[in-house]
Specification:
Blueprint: H1 3-18, H2 35-44, H3 50-61, H4 75-86, E1 90-91, E2 96-98, E3 112-120, E4 145-151, E5 164-170, E6 175-180, E7 182-183, H5 184-196, H6 200-209, H7 211-214, E8 223-227, E9 232-246, E10 249-264
Antiparallel strand pairs: 1-3, 2-3, 3-4, 4-8, 5-6, 5-9, 7-8, 9-10
Helix pairs in contact: 1-3, 2-3
Length: 265
């Protein structure tokens, strides 16, 4: 699938999911204008662009409910959110889920819940004990954002790590776009070592030091995407497919969009 078709499909998926959204309460007061709506209106006057497509996709996926009742159908969802928080990643406004997806038997409808989040750079500021003279290692630097996705109920990940996407939009710069997510462990280590620009010998020492952080990332289903979003308030929606192995064979599960923001320095 070409990148253009993939982006269009993502926007359509986000828009369809938005039809399921129902505000929690009604009010007689007019809704105040928000930065994203204002930005969309401004960009529409400038014609079609990737930033406009991303902003419209995020706007279409938002709901009037920041926290839904019984948003935590499984205790594993709390554990997934804790993983993000412990790593310094701010969880998105609400979780998402995929039906008939979980590899764990006995779960009603086979629901696999998931959480997503974002961390503005520099992140995660790792120091190498053996090389204290080196600056902290980061997967994303200033003006960049690391987006994360962590599902529960995925225990045997497929070799195919593609399928998840993030649509992002910086309300301060009016720039935005789409980015593909990759396997968490590989993406994290590669991003850190790429930013560090170390010689091969030191890079191997650094790779060993990263094991403590990598060990906190789930081995199955987790996805990461480092994006040059620029500094500012960055809104994002994460959605797409995760392929994994179950007792019934390989499954490709679609996760509905979840929306959040990051304040990026």
């Amino acid at each position: 699938m070409s990148r253009r078709i993939s982006r269009v499909a993502g926007a359509v998926a986000l828009s369809c999911a938005a039809l399921l959204a129902v505000p929690a309460t009604a009010t007689a007061d007019p809704a105040p204008a928000d930065p994203l709506s204002t930005a969309v209106a401004n960009l529409q006057g400038q014609g079609a662009s990737t930033a406009l497509s991303a902003a419209e996709a995020i706007a279409a996926s938002r709901t009037g409910v920041a926290e839904t009742t019984d948003a935590n159908p499984l205790a594993a969802l709390d554990a997934a959110n804790k993983i993000l928080s412990d790593l310094g990643i701010t969880p998105f406004f609400y979780p998402t889920a995929s039906i008939n997806c979980a590899a764990i038997p006995g779960i009603p409808l086979g629901i696999a819940p998931a959480v997503a989040g974002a961390a503005g750079g520099p992140w995660p500021n790792i120091k190498i004990p053996l090389l204290p003279q080196l600056p902290a290692l980061n997967a994303v630097e200033k003006g960049e954002t690391m987006f994360a996705f962590v599902p529960a109920g995925v225990v045997d990940d497929s070799a195919n790590k593609s399928g998840m996407q993030v649509a992002w939009f910086n309300v301060n710069t009016l720039k935005g776009g789409f980015a593909d997510m990759g396997g968490a462990t590989t993406t994290f280590v590669d991003s850190v070592l790429s930013n560090a620009n170390l010689d091969p010998f030191v890079a191997e020492i650094a790779r060993t030091a990263l094991n403590s952080v990598v060990a906190q990332l789930p081995a199955a289903g987790a996805r990461l995407a480092p994006v040059e979003t620029g500094s500012g308030t960055v809104l994002a929606a994460i959605f797409g497919n995760v392929t994994h192995n179950t007792a019934e064979g390989e499954k490709t599960c679609f996760f509905f969009p979840t929306v959040g923001l990051a304040n990026v320095g």
